[in-house]
Structure formats: structure tokens, C-alpha cells
Amino acid sequence: MKKLGHVAAGSLIAFAASIGAAQADKLTFYCSAQEDWCQLMARSFEDATGIDVNMTRKSSGETFAQIRAESSNPKGDVWWGGTGDPHLQAAEEGLTMEYVSPMRDQLHDWAISQAESAGNKTIGIYSGALGYGYNADLLAANNLPEPACWKDLLKPEFKGHVQMANPNSSGTAYTTLASMVQIFGEDEGFDFMKGLHTNINQYTKSGSAPIKAAGRGENTVGIVFMHDAVKQAVSGFPIKVVAPCEGTGYEIGSMSIIDGARNVDEAKKFYDWALSTDAQNLALEVNAFQVPSNKGAETSASAPDMSTIKLIDYDFKKYGSSDERKRLLQKWDEEVSVLPQ
Amino acid sequence: MTDDTSKKTPPVLIFWIIAGWVGYCLLPWYMVEDGLWSFRWVLDGYPFDEDVAPGLFLIAQGEKLWLAPLLIPLTLPLLVLRCPKSDPLYAKVLILAGALGFGWLIAQGFSIGIRGFNFDWLKSAFGDLGDRQFGMGYGAMICAASFLFLLTQGIAARGAINGDVFVVSAVGGVITIVTAFVFFPIAKMLFAAFVTEDGAYSLSVFASKFFDDRLWGLGCFWGARCGAAWNSLILAILVGIITTVLGLAFALVVTRSGFRYKRALRALTVLPIITPPFVIGLALILLFGLSGTVTQFFADLFGTQPTRWLYGMPGVLIAQTLAFTPIAFLVLIGVVEGVSPSMEEAAQTLRANRWQTFRTVSLPLMRPGLANAFLLGFIESMADFGNPLVLGGNFDVLSTEIFFAIVGAQYDQGRAAVLAMVLLFFTLSAFYAQRVWLGRKSYTTVTGKGDAGVHPLMPVGLSMPVLLVALGWALFTIVVYAMIIYGSVVELWGVNNTLTFKHYVTAFSVRIEAEGIRWTGAAWDSFWTTITIAALAAPLTAAVGLVTAYLLTRQSFAGKNAFEFGTMLSFAIPGTVIGVSYILAFNVPPIEITGTGVILVISFIFRNMPVGVRAGIASMSQLDKSLDESSLTLGANSWQTFRRVILPLLRPAILAALVYSFVRAMTAISAVIFLVSAEYDMATSYIIGRVENNDYGLAIAYSTTLIFVMLSVVAFMQFVVGRTQIGRRMSQSRTNV
Hints:
heterodimer; A: alpha/beta; D-Maltodextrin-Binding Protein, domain 2; 2 domains; eleven-stranded mixed sheet; 11 strands; 43% helix; 17% strand; globular; disordered N terminus; B: mainly alpha; MetI-like fold; 3 domains; two-stranded antiparallel ribbon; 6 strands; 3% strand
């Protein structure tokens, strides 16, 4: 009976194929970078391989929430872009799959160490340093000195002029908190956060909101990733980007294959392709100012020059773990956020 | 009913029996992977391939044998085809067949999932299944519907609700879908509040999250910050009161004043409701923000330092008032129009002056409207997500806290569930308070009796302030919208004010080629998806909402209060929670619809249905029951009465429900952001993406286009649905009287 069915089905499939309904290879692609970059990656991959790409763009937090919710019946295949912490978290929870790409030898060390700290379940695709940007017009209007270091932001004249995101809701702000702890040591780092607290006019929910507010003239200084600040400047807003003199932390934008993916082979193809120079050079076309992880890929001329930035040796393994994160956030909640402003 | 009809088998019964067999024998039992509207399966292995085979073909091939028992309840109703309806056997057999079939469908759906048995005790009892099943498809859905309606027909035949098949079926249907799409996902989500990190259940986890200072802190009384719960509550009460007052003012100006530009005013009040979220917020920032035009103007004028006063409660309050006043207006206009002039004329005949008439007759009769308007404003404010996000500053409210508990750096679903419970508690308390305030009084004013009359004008002492408030608010709305349109045609809003159309071109360019029009603009994909989904969702929402309202006001049945509570529940929960709970609930069988357009349509129906219900209830409580009764006495059944008598009188409510659900489907963001997929991207999530990417021009140009599209759709709906003819003299004839 079943065989008969298959024969009948076979002839029908042949018929269906002849009218052009054949199934092509496909890939469900979760993207956490900016929209136009995501689109470009999806289309370029289609052109390069002929695999149909279904792309969904959401922030890394949203994507992580979705992958977690879908874990018993995964719908996505590959997750590309977005800050590294949720990727590490996903690896920790077993939501993503181990894969060692043959492209590894072309990558910077930081990209590989990201992979190693997560048992090869994720890999670095770009990096961006933390810093801040200020609105030059507002700075002049308020007669404020030009800041150059983290500690400049503690000056009393900056009261009510600084914005950063809430570390409880934003990965960017958590990176800031963890960076301060690593730059100044835990006690002095928290003293810095307390001093900053008195000058903060608002803890935003989203990580890049402070610099967007600064662009619109609603805020003077925004603590963000420097590539976000550069983007504002390139868009035409009067934003100046600062790489703080004490040194700074950074994020590693990551990529992971979802555990239980329905199109694993296509996902691996994408993974290898996304690490190639060709794919990483696409960033130049969409004003993405992060530093690509492939050593041969080019960096935009407007991007912050990583060689002049004093980068700290950020411990992703320690500060990306959920225990350390919980401890620091709780400490920040209890000792910093409750202080009067 | 005559004796003649009770001997024949009711056609409804035959219909549902056939439907059940069709679902079982002809349609693919499981969800077809290509989507609901793709019919490729007809050519692709049907009817033998396991993926697209109907239930009967599956068991004939020895597959999915747990579907075989369904043959019993499918066969049972055939036995009573010859039975008269009054035979007790008829009712018993139908109830047995319906309950058995429906129960078995649910039981097997939850027990056997994509990894075999879902429960450990089943595994230990029967061993490993070695087989699995995916989500329900056409066949299973139709079978389920068939069993459900067989059951309701059986219950009706036993005499429940006067043996009225339509009413029993409607109650059964609404209960089933509300359970499936509201209670089930929310219950699944709320359980997360009791789950510890290692997956065990615990009450102490709940307690520690519930008694959090960030939730209940009262710091704002001594300079620090208050908890999100208090912030939300205070804000929602203020917004509820202000929107109700403004909505009433507009409704009075439009119906009871000699004001000339009523139509323009009416159109204006609808504007904010058709505005995508956060556009109002952006416009307010450009007007009143630190570098805003108005702020700068006054700073220069008085030589003061500009402040960030907008960020926080004031900004959110202004934006929400702008956004939700139209909802209050839409609810109130129907009610204010519906108040019978005869009663007002009676009062005037008894020598009451206009003011007394208004205060003692008109206003009390508007109480259902006022209460419903307040309730909607309160709930909308509680659940609003876009405005607090843009303008909230350090003013935390529950809805944004929930969002960031889920997507933020903490990933704390438990906290989100606890916050959702608090929010739910507030909204349900408001709901309860509203019912107490309305009490058991009658607000019936539209009766079958002659009711010709003209509404008296407002008393002068009232009309002046009302007109001033309405006009002032209208002016403010115009300024805000002028800013938005202006923003869509400048190079970079607030920085480079060169006029340009490039944003519209990027979004909506088309190329006409030999093979037809090519939609080359960046926005077309999401635009068509949004329009399709909104157009599908709107009539369904209105239908479900009004049927529910009819059941609630016109019928009495056991558990009616719980029923009403259930229908309001999804509205009281912020979209974010709905979004996540839908993913949790509908990503796995038996209902597996994530990543499809269906999940978007369904989420819109159940998010917006309460507005249809509220508008319907408000209007229906004004219609006298004697209208139904006379229709029933004249031999119509309850379906005919609903369709011929109630429905035509409900046109304002239908319009409100249609407009609201269409518009909300096009402007909603919080639930949508979790449910959109690559193929089904919605306009709002696309716009948010543009804003995140600094493309303010494109985002605002897209929003402006959406506003105009919605305006024309609303006008079109108004034209199609038409106005209620209550048989009153038109106001132009006033001069002749």
C-alpha cells in the first residue's frame, strides 16, 4: 500500500517539478545586525550559492529570546550578528551547535578565542570598541570642556549631560560596567559608576539610544560602542567620537548555528561564507563601522582606527558567564542605581 | 418552530456531520509545510504521502494509529439522523459523539508531539512510541470544529438556553477559541513565574520577584524613584480620565453643537489612532525636547536654560493622551448619538432647562460609554509600549520593564511573568470597578417605539469650555501632524532641512517594465504583507467581537462572568507578553503556527477583539430587548434576529470594531516584533528597524504613507458599513420644526 502510494506520489512529484514547483535548498537566517546589512548578506549569499534565504532581523536580545522559546522545535538555522554575550549565553544553554569552520586560519585571534571560550559553538565576525560620543554644538552651547578620558565624565559641570543605557536591559551598558571593573579594578570601577550616576540624566533601555539622543540634540554625551557614534557622525549629526585615554573594552559580534537546525548543511555553507573576505567586505557598502574578523577584509576609512585605541584584555569567558553577570548587575542595582542623583 | 421542521434532520447537523467526514477523509490531516494558502500538496504526493495524507489514508496505511478511534464519534451521529430532535437519544448521542471526538483530539494532540510522547508517564506505560506528529492541519481543524458543533447541538437539543442552536454554538465556539488563543498561551507564560533556574517549580522564586523594590518602591515621595507598578497605575488613571473627558468633549461638539467644521474635527480625532507608534513621540521630541522648537523659543524668550522636562511622566502622558483620545471618542460618539432624544425632550417638557437635562438625563445615560472609554484608556495606557520607550526617561512602567526582562541583558522570563501578573491585576481591577459603578441600572434608550426627535444642544455654560478644549486639542494635533509630514520631506530631520522627496522614492519606487510593474521600493514587501494581514484580521475581529458582545448582553448562561473576563484578558496583557506566550504555545503541536501569517492574524484578532466587544456592549445595552423579543415572537430565530435587527442597529459599533482592528493591525508593534518572520514582515517592525538605523526620514515617510492609506481605508469602511438609520429627524430639519 505504502509502496503504491510512493509510486503514485513519485509521478506526481515529477509532474509538479515539471511545472516549476521543485524544492530549492533553503536557509532560515536570523540576523541581529542593522537591517540593510542583513538584507545585503542574505541577497549576496543567495547570489553566491543559489540557496534561498529567509531572513528575519531582530535585535540580539529578541533573537535570543526567540531561539530559546523555539528550542523544542527550532525554526532558525543560523544566527549572525549582534553582540557576543547572548551568543555565549546561547552556547552555555546548549541552544547552539558546535562547528569548526575551515576558514578559521584566516581570522584574527580575538575571533578564535571567542569561539574557544564557548566550546566552538560561536565565532567572532566583527568587533567594536566601547567609547563615547558627544554633540559638539551642545558642548559649546553649555561651555563644557572637551572630554577625552572616562574620568572627564565625572566632572561636576557634566551633571545632567551624560547618558548611558541601563545595564539590566542593555548588553552595551553591561559591557561598560564590566569594562570599568576591568580597567579600574572592582572597587574603583564601582566608585566610577557611582560618580557617573550623579551626572547621568537618563538610563535608556536600548544600548545605542544615548548617542541617537545626542545626535538629535536631546543629550550631550552618550556612552556607546564607537561604531554607533561614527554612524551618527557620518549620517550628518554633529557628533564627535572619543576613544577614552584610560583604555576601553570591546564587544565581539558573533555567529552561531542553531542546535537542531533543519538545514544544517546550508547553515554551515553560510557560516564559512560569512567568514570570507568577500562577505566581510560587504560591511563597507552599508556604513557598518565595525572591524571585520577576517584578517584580509578591509575596514572603512571612517571607522575608528583600532591600532590607536588602547584596548584592554577583556575577559569574555569570565564576564560573559551568567553568574558573574548576575553578581555585577545585582551589585550595581544595590549600590549605584539607588543613589540620589 | 413548527412541528414540521422538528421531524426533519436539521440542515446544520447534516452540514457538520459532512464537514467532519470531509476533514477526516479528504483533507490533509497535518499542517502542510508550505503554508495555509499554498495548494501545492494537491500535486505533491496527495493522498498517500504521510505529510499531506488525510486521517483515513494514514490509518489505512497503518500510520498514526492513534487517529483511528476518531471513527467512532464520526459514525455515532449518523445513528440519530432519523431521530426527531425532541428524542432524548438525539441529544445524548450528539453530546457523546462531540465530547468524545473533541476530547480525543485534544488528548492525542497534547500527548504525542514531535518527539513522541510528551509525558513521562505515557512513556513508562506504553514504552517509546517510535513515531511523532506535527501540528494540526486543515483536516484536523475541520474535524475539531465538527465535533465541537455536534456537541453544542446536542447540548441545545437538551434544552440549554431555550434550545437555541445558534446561541449555544456561538457560546461554545467563542469559549473554544478564547481558550485556545488566550487562556492557553497566557497560562503557559505565567507558569514561568514559578520556575526556578534549574526548571523546578517553586513559590519562593515568585515571592522574591514579586516583592521587588523596583516594582513597589515608593521612593518618589522623597526624591528617589517609584516602582514601576505605581508609575503605571498613576499614569493609567490619569490617561483614562483625560482621554475620557477629551473624548466626551469631542463627541459633544460633533453631535450637540452648532459647530460648523464637525467633519474636519471628526477626521482629526481619528488621526492619532492611525499613526504608527513612536512617530508621535519623535514629533513631540522635536517640539518640546531639549533642542525642540518650542523649548528653544521659550528659552530664548525668557532667557532660561532649556530642560529635559519632556522625558518622563509628562511626555508619556501627553503622547498617550494624543494617541488614545480617539479610542474614547469612538466609543463615546456611538453612545452619545444613541441617547434617545425623546427622554431629553421629555425632560425639557417637564420644564428642565438645558443644563438640568444634560446633567440629570443625558450624562447618566452616557455612563456605559464613559465607563467603557475610561476602561479602554486605562488598559491601553497600561499596555502601551512605544511611547514609554521613546519618552519615558527614567520613568519606568510595567510594559517596558516586561519587554526588557525578556529581551534585555537579563533574560528573566520569570520576572516578566511576575510583572505581567501585576499588570493583569491592575487592569482586571479596573474592569471590576467599572462593573460595580455601572451597577444593574438600565441604559436602554433605543426601543421599538417611535423615537423621532432631535438632540438638544449643549447648555451654553458647557458648550463654551467644551468647544475650547476640543479646538485647543485639535490645534495641537494639527501642529504635531504638520511636524510629521514636514519630517518626511526633509533631508535629515532636525539637522539638515533641505526639502526632498528621496525618502518616498527609496521606500515606494516602482518601475514599469515590459512584463508589468516592478515594485522596486524598499518598503513594498512589508507594506503588502501588512495590508493583507490587516484586511484579513479586521472583519474577523469585528465578527468575533460583536458575536461575543451579543452573547454577553443578550443571553444568560452559566459562567457568563468568567466568559466576559476571558474575552477582556488578552487586551489587558501587553503585546510583548502575548508575543512571547504565542511563541511558547504555538511553536509545538497540536497548534503549530509560528513563522506563518496565520499567527499574526490570530494575534491581532484576540488582541483587538475586546474593543469590538466593548463597543458592541456599549451600543447593545442601549437597544431595548423588546426589539429582539418582537422579532422572536414573529417567528424569527435568534440568528435571524441578530442579523436582521441587532446588526443593522449596531453599525457604529461595527465600524468602530472594523476600523480599530484594521488600524491596530497596521500600527501594533509590541506583539508583532516576536511574531514576524522572514516571509511575513510587518510595516511597524520594518519602521523600527529604520529608526534604529538612523533612517528617520525613511521611517517617517513610510509612517506618513501608512497614515494616508489608513485614512482612505477608514473612509471606505465608513462608506460600506453606512450609518445607522434610527429613524430620527435629521438635524437639518430642525428649522422646519
